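In the design runs reported in the main text, the only information available to the sequence generator was the tokenized backbone. The following block is the verbatim input for one such run; it is reproduced so that readers can re-run the procedure and compare outputs position by position.
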């Protein structure tokens, strides 16, 4: 009998052992719950804010375009939020003969002539047998939402001084060069009163002749600007959403006023908000705050955030 009892003890736990293990687990679980309950809400808030601002900086550096982070108080007892506003790549056309498009919504009609000695490989120039724009892309809402803003970036090498139309992005922007290759862009936005408003950016600086450069055309719902090789050419206030009507298109080098040169990689971005991060419910920011980072990820607006706990500043 004694040997049978020994064999049973080795095969499994006794009731006493199970009670001891259960008691230990209960104590440990209670300690864990107590630790979580004592987590400092200010540390949680600081961690969330640090994560969002760091992500915005890294995105700005990676894409070479500015980003923002907003801290917004909650309403009617809701939690305050921390939310980044960044640029999401939508599509890039590299003009390589072997390039394909996975999504038909991003497929563009390519015209002009192939230029095998582009900046990064093959490029395109107006002309040839194609009697169309160098690039035409029908803008569809299913492909991207540009209501919060957009950015267009492309590489350009101009070969002679001639006035031209560089691009049209629906009704949102029309970019032209004058006879001295000075860019001027007309932006249009839809205002909160459901009207429309126009604004123009003119550059006193000409684009270079005979060498590659990178041009940015950006509208973020509050301002619009042009940049050349990372240096701003001009900026204007545009309070409203970019004006893009149904069935509009992006046209690069329209046939009525073609670019006197070559275009390489063309990229389209959309301004989007990242998923909101919620601060601990007991904390509320004293006011809305905005962090901003330039195209190099350097801070240009870093407010000191004051949080209220039970109506008192922390």
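Verbatim output:
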């Amino acid at each position: 009998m004694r040997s049978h009892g020994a064999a049973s003890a080795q095969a499994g736990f006794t009731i006493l052992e199970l009670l001891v293990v259960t008691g230990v687990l209960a104590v440990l679980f209670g300690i864990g719950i107590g630790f979580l309950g004592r987590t400092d809400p200010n540390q949680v808030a600081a961690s969330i804010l640090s994560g969002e601002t760091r992500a915005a900086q890294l995105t700005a550096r990676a894409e070479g375009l500015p980003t923002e982070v907003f801290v917004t108080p909650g309403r009617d007892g809701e939690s305050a939020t921390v939310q980044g506003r960044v640029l999401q790549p939508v599509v890039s056309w590299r003009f390589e003969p072997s390039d394909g498009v996975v999504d038909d919504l991003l497929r563009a009609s390519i015209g002009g002539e192939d230029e095998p000695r582009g900046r990064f490989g093959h490029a395109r120039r107006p002309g040839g047998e194609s009697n169309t724009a160098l690039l035409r892309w029908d803008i569809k809402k299913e492909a991207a939402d540009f209501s919060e803003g957009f950015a267009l970036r492309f590489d350009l090498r101009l070969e002679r001084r001639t006035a031209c139309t560089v691009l049209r992005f629906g009704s949102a922007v029309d970019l032209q060069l004058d006879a001295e290759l000075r860019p001027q862009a007309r932006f249009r936005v839809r205002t909160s009163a459901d009207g429309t408003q126009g604004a123009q950016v003119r550059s006193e600086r000409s684009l270079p002749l005979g060498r590659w450069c990178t041009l940015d055309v950006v509208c973020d719902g509050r301002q619009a600007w042009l940049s050349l090789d990372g240096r701003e050419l001009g900026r204007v206030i545009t309070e409203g959403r970019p004006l893009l009507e149904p069935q509009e298109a992006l046209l690069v080098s329209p046939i009525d006023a073609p670019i006197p040169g070559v275009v390489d990689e063309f990229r389209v971005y959309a301004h989007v908000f990242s998923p909101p991060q919620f601060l601990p419910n007991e904390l509320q920011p004293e006011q809305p705050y905005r962090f901003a980072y330039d195209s190099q990820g350097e801070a240009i607006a870093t407010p000191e955030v004051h949080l209220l706990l039970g109506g008192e500043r922390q």
